[in-house]
Write a structure and sequence with these properties.
Elements: H1 3-13, E1 31-34, E2 37-40, H2 41-59, H3 65-79, H4 91-110, H5 114-144
Antiparallel strand pairs: 1-2
Length: 168
Amino acid sequence: MGLISRVKSAIDRDPIILSHHPLCGRFDDHVLKVGGRRVCIGCVTVYPSAVAAALLLLALGQTSFSALFPLALGLFAANLLRFVAKGHRLSALFNAFLGASLAAAILSAVNAPGDLRLAVVVFVLAVASVFHLVKGRRVFKTCRRCPRYQEFPRCASGATPRPADPAE
């Protein structure tokens, strides 16, 4: 079996592979359907935004570490407003900020002075890790309140999505 066949087979067997969110009604506002598969809204907005921002920064000739690193921090700080904003109507905007921040952070790490490069890479990885831990804790907090939590991740695989609990 070739690599492409194995990847296709894995996608067909595991409905969560294109979405890192559980596939139940409690997370319907985190996923959308593309080609019959559920995919993470964040992933399909953050990563294209990062590529677009990187291309724009490069096209504008913005490769200076002293400009890119503060830009990355500012965009990431703007993205953190997602934790105080209510509802998901602004998530695409926050995801665009996060994607642009990712692009600026990567370009700043690549263009950092040699004596700072390792520190910048470690800092960027540490901030990204903490951000993902916080986001992950929020997802699992919702899961832990679910009556089917003991079945995770099989709780929603292939099952009809359940409506979200209005108390959440």
